[in-house]
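Per your request, structure below.
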């Protein structure tokens, strides 16, 4: 039975709007974009490290995956969001990666939009604002950071970050054994209390031109994502959002497979898209799986 407030609201609506309101505030259509976005997000939580979400939160997420009836309860995502924030607040906030902040804001948005009259529209708007804002702040940081603009960050990471080093060694972009040599230097530098407070980076000087180019291209792509997601594009041009975000994810997480941020972006990107649900599942769901495979490739291939 509807409440007095709901009956009064329905009386002010035209019949079509009243039906839409009743549907959006009661049950979840199992063919809706909200339903699939919710399940993809729950899969993300279920597969996340326990340190990021907490064991109780993962149990609740798994329950939602195997008991779809829970998604019909508007308080389910409220409880899940609360668990994520509680786990976050009682932990070492300063030690969490940036994807955990985005993750918590996203589940808070899922909880709020469950009460919206037009749930999918509200969720899509929230998703676009989250992605656009995240990339806008990322671009501002990169532009104002001389280490990033000059390519010094990529030069350093290419020979000290194992996830990047393997690919660059395979492409012969860096000397063989550069990673181990630099790691030994880093370990000695970190534990030494004597001069010099630095070391010579073992890298390939012939590729110094490449790192600023890569930095510029990164800023350009991320700025494109920020602008397109924050701009009020028409349905016809909204495909630019999908192309830029999916292209960024494929290129970035092939080079630097970070499951947390990449998979979270695919969950939010799914909800933001204007594509039909089945096409979203193929593209965003496919890249979601691709990122997970890239992240666990060493385990899958038996590489230690």
């Amino acid at each position: 039975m509807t409440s007095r407030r709901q009956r009064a609201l329905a009386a002010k609506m035209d019949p079509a709007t009243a039906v839409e309101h009743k549907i959006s505030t009661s049950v979840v259509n199992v063919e809706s974009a909200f339903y699939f976005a919710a399940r993809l997000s729950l899969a993300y939580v279920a597969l996340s490290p326990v340190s990021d979400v907490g064991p109780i939160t993962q149990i609740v997420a798994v329950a939602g995956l195997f008991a779809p009836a829970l998604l019909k309860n508007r308080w389910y995502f409220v409880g899940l969001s609360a668990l994520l924030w509680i786990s976050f607040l009682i932990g070492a906030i300063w030690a969490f990666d940036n994807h955990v902040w985005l993750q918590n804001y996203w589940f808070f948005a899922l909880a709020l939009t469950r009460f919206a009259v037009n749930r999918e529209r509200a969720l899509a708007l929230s998703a676009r604002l989250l992605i656009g804002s995240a990339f806008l702040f990322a671009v501002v940081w990169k532009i104002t950071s001389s280490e990033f603009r000059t390519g010094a960050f990529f030069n350093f990471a290419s020979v000290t970050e194992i996830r990047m080093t393997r690919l660059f060694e395979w492409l012969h972009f860096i000397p063989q054994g550069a990673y181990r040599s630099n790691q030994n230097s880093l370990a000695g530098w970190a534990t030494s209390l004597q001069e010099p407070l630095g070391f010579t980076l073992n890298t390939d000087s012939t590729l110094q031109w490449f790192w600023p180019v890569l930095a510029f291209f990164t800023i350009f792509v991320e700025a494109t994502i920020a602008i397109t997601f924050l701009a009020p594009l028409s349905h016809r041009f909204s495909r630019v959002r999908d192309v830029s975000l999916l292209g960024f994810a494929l290129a970035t997480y092939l080079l630097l497979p970070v499951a947390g941020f990449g998979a979270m972006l695919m969950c939010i990107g799914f909800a933001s898209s204007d594509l039909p649900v089945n096409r979203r599942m193929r593209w965003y769901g496919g890249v979601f799986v691709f990122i997970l495979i890239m992240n666990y490739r060493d385990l899958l291939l038996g590489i230690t």
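The longest helix spans residues 119-144.

Regards,
D.
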